[in-house]
Amino acid sequence: MGVPVPLGGRAFEIIAELVQAQGELVSKRDLTQRVWRGVFVEESALRVHIAAIRKALGPDRDMLATTVGRGYRLLGSWRIRHVDAPSHSAAPELSLSTNIPAATFDLIGRAAAIAHLWELLSAYRVVSLVGPGGIGKTALALQTARSPPRGFAADRLLIELASLSNPELVSSAVAAVLGIKLEGEDISAEAIARAIGDRQLLLVFDNCEHVIGAVARLTETIVSRCPGITIVATSREALRIGGEHVYRVQPLDVPPEALLAPDAISEHTSVELFMTRAEAQGSNFERDEENLGAVAAICRRLDGIPLAIEFAAARAAALGPPKIAALLDNRFKFLTTGRRTALPRQQTLRATLDWSYDLLPEAEARVLRRLGIFAGDFLLDAVIAVAGDCESGVVTDYLANLVAKSLAIADIRGERPYYRLLDTTRAYALEKLHASGEYPDAARRAAQYHRGLFANAEAESELKPQAEWLALYGRHIDNVRASLDWAFSPDGDAQAGVALTAAAVPLWVQLSLLAECRERTELALAMIDEGAAGAARLRMQLSAARAWSLMYGVGRAREAGPAWTLALQLAEQLGDTDYLLRALWGLCIDQFNNGEIRKALEFAHRFAEVAAGSSNSVDLMMADRLLATTLHYLGDQNLAHHHITRTLSRLSDLLPKPQVIRFRFDLRVSAHYFQARILWLMGLADQALRVVERNIEEGRASGHALTFCSVLGQGACPITFLAGDLDAAERYCVLLIEHTERHPIRLWNLWARAFRGMVMARSGGVATGLPVLRKALEVAGEARFLPRFLLPLGELASYLGEAGEVAQGLAAANDALARCEARDELWYQAELLRIKGELLLKAGEYRSVAAAEQSFDRSLQVARSQGAPFWELRTAISLARLRASQDRPAEAHHMLASVYAKFTEGFEISDLRSAKALMAQLSTD
Predict the structure, then answer these.
(1) How does pLDDT run across 146-193, given as a tens digit for each residue?
(2) At what angle do helices 362-371 and 380-387 cross, to 10 degrees?
(3) Angstrom distance (rounded) from CA 337 to CA 95
């Protein structure tokens, strides 16, 4: 009791209103009307002031009670007493109202910040603007002081502290600006407070970091004794005094890495600043996609820091944005053109960081240097690991100090706090690390730390949902990359790199980074020391990872088989059942890709034999999943349905959330898209479409890029196309193209572009879609021999016939049929026979009704033998139309009706509607 607390003017008015209510509830509406007196304010403004009051009340904060949604009341007993204003006879007459310099340029992107700062200043007596060098603290403080709200009557004075070399001169600097002359009295904080008295003042203490202790003591004294004073301080760390509100100045917003239209790029304030400053320097480059894309990259690389962006913009007239972006790796030599009127430490980017670095104690400077080794987010454990021989508690304190001084950034939103350096700060720290000779030790320690971090990553991918796994490990990918780059450099440690590569494989798998996985594992495999302990196991692990990445690549898929074979041999040699199953799975999929479906079935059976002795549900499910997939491609839909049903019956054994298992995809999601394919061919269209719709949501939720490709490409796209729902097929196709451009999975991108040609030809006409389909298949090259490309190849043959190119269409159909028969790739054989029959009915030299009938009859036999009523229905429609043209309507109706009767659902799909309409027509003929 009786302890003064610093409160801003409006915060004090709020507490006065609550005191006068004597414990009764005061509504939010009443408070804002009384305190702001007719000025409309957002509710957030009231919350700012309520927070300030609670902070001022300290341990008694619960006295301010909230009734949610209604208002506030002040608890306890309160007395209102009047206090005489302090005597200030010693104060001289002061007529100066402001010394804030006039603005020489527009402050871009800070309008909302200025409005918020004035709300803070009406709630708190001390507001500190904190942030790293160049973030714009001074510019923001000065512009705030220049633009007070209506009715603000205080003098506004700037006290510039950057030039002070001695903290003891702070009081003198303040007294000089205030015009205080204290004859015969020391210039102390207390003397300045007495001289100010009850004068209404807004003081801006600018650049406090190097004299922070003296500024803090002076501020605390003045605020506690002078009720009319409010202080704005700019510093790279907070004052840490009672009643202070710390406002962390944020960078300007930067465009995301995702591709944006030029107009969307220009909306970001960092880009607006660059463009404005560049134009002021006489630059007139075109605002086209290339230049604006380069400006966006510059702003990202410079972390949205205004000072650095201004330096870069100053070079735009001479170099242009693309050249500037290319030169940013050497930013400390390049970004040296500041305003001549700026402080010396703000005239180059290096000088700005030197100012902060030189203020650090050597121990903290050493930790900052070592933080430069991290290329992305890092944990406290990582800092302790690279710091050297310091005790963990000391390192923790050093890191906390660096955060407080705005040299490191803390993200405390999750369960574990993460830290990072701004890109510019990291480049500076890394430069210092190299100059100190400490880089090799720090790099080695970082590589060792990340190897240990990922030691259990593979096992945990079996136990944790993917989102949880990625939250734990995904943020470390840039650091892993940096450690591997060092390890495989001439001065690095190749064997440490080999071990780290093997440990980090799950990261590339979970993120579907196929090309990077291939490149990293190939480099590691070339560097293995065969004489070292564990070399065979490392080679097995890396060979399996390389094989996986090759399997989904373009142009090198044939290399996957030998890599899987090597992994299989090493797994057998080491008695490693886990990798034995992985290799058998990989070899099975590899046989699909090479068109050896019978051999794929042999590997699927071998997998099932090994898995039979496993207690792992995933292994048992995977055995049925492989058999279902193989039998589906072989054309045995009934047995495939049996195995996929057994797979799905065990789904309850999996985690309820999406999970990417060691076979490199989400088993639940992948089982469902093959279930949809099998159900579709079996004539269960409604069930298949429901599975597709659910599978889309499952695929999105999985967060696994490669799995979602298969959801769209194996299930949603072909099934909606076959259903005749071209709008849905187009929508899913566009989604797949966008997805594969966002995640570089080129094999699926090639297929999606071929599929788009199919949809265009069906919906917009052959003249539109056929060239697109042809071009896409030409670009696909050898990828056309993958099972997924049979559908586009069959549609190509059909569209060629519609375009009058019957010879080419027949050649395409015959080639595809020969492929199916040679490779036992029989699932699409019935449809190809139907397409061939349709081509043989086209007018011209190739027309042969007898040959067409023979092709249709063979199609029906194949469809029936495979348990594929959908293909049977399509062929029955084609044959019924032929019979009708031969004046045999009764025979046509009977044949088509017998097939139609096999269907119990799906009557709204295109083919069943066509069949029904044709039967109605035939019954009247």
Answers:
(1) 999 887 888 999 999 988 888 988 998 999 898 887 765 678 889 999
(2) 110
(3) 39
Distances (CA, A) of 482 to 485, 489, 519: 5, 11, 15
Helix (H, G, I), strand (E, B) or coil at 737: helix
pLDDT of 82 strictly over 60? no
Q: How many CA atoms lie within 13 A of 716 on its CB side?
A: 28
Task: Look at residue 343 and tell me whether its pLDDT is greater than 70.
Answer: no
Q: In what order do the strands lie in the sheet with 418-420?
A: 378-379, 418-420, 409-411
CATH classification code of 9-74: 1.10.10.10
Question: Can you name the residues that pair with 72 across neighbouring β-strands?
Answer: 26, 66
Q: Return d(Cα 683, Cα 909) in angstroms, integer.
A: 11
Give dist(CA 327, CA 312) in Å, integer.
10
Residue 1 scores a pLDDT above 80? no
Give the chain's mean pLDDT: 87
Nearest of 160, 156, 118, 109 to residue 136 by alpha carbon: 109
Can you say whether residue 553 is alpha, beta or left, with left for phi > 0 and alpha for psi between -120 and 50 degrees? beta
Q: Are 817 and 779 in contact (CB under 8 A)?
A: no
Give the architecture-level CATH label for domain 111-248.
Answer: 3-Layer(aba) Sandwich (3.40)
Nearest to 446 by CA among 485, 494, 475, 479: 479
Confidence category of residue 86, pLDDT binned at 50, 70, 90: very low
Contacts of 924 (CB under 8 A, 6+ apart): none
360-437: CATH topology is Arc Repressor Mutant, subunit A (1.10.10)
Q: What is the pLDDT of residue 655?
A: 58
Q: Which residue has the tokens 């020489």?
A: 104
Task: Tally the C-alpha atoms within 13 A of residue 571's C-alpha that lie toward its C-beta.
Answer: 21
In single-letter form, the type of residue at position 675 comes to Q
| CA dist list (Å): 114 to 119, 139, 141, 406 | 9, 11, 8, 21
Cβ atoms of 824 and 818 closer than 8 Å? no
Provide the CA 139 distance to its chain's centre, in angstroms: 32
In this structure, how many other beta carbons lie within 10 angstroms of the beta carbon of residue 885? 12
Amino acid at 696: I
H or E stretch covering 819:
helix 806-823
**Which pairing describes strands 378-379 and 409-411: parallel, antiparallel, or unpaired?**
unpaired
| Domains 111-248 and 360-437 agree in fold | no
What tokens were used for 770?
A: 């056929």
The runs of H, that is alpha helices, within 226-305 are 262-266, 269-280, 289-301
Arithmetic mean of pLDDT, 197-222:
93
Note whether 841 and 864 are within 8 A (CB). no
Tally of CB atoms within 10 A around 284: 9
pLDDT at res. 658 = 47
pTM assigned to the model: 0.74
User: Are β-strands 64-67 and 71-74 bridged in parallel, bridged antiparallel, or unpaired?
Assistant: antiparallel
Strand-pair partners of 73: 65
CA–CA distance, 502 with 504 (Å, rounded to integer): 6
Higher pLDDT, 466 or 518: 518
Burial, 904: exposed, middle or buried (Cβ in 10 Å; 0-12, 13-18, 19+)? exposed
Which of 512-516, 550-554, 864-868 is the most confident on average? 864-868
Q: How far apart are CA 894 and CA 229, in angstroms?
A: 98
pLDDT tens digit string along 268-285? 999 999 998 888 888 888
Into which CATH architecture does domain 821-925 fall? Alpha Horseshoe (1.25)
d(CA 419, CA 399): 9
pLDDT value of residue 87: 42
Q: Domain segments of the chain: what residues?
A: 9-74, 111-248, 262-345, 360-437, 821-925
Q: Which residue has the higher pLDDT, 655 or 648?
A: 648
Within 327-462, strands assigned E span 378-379, 409-411, 418-420
Beta bridge partners of 852: none
Cα separation, 206 vs 154, in Å, equals 18
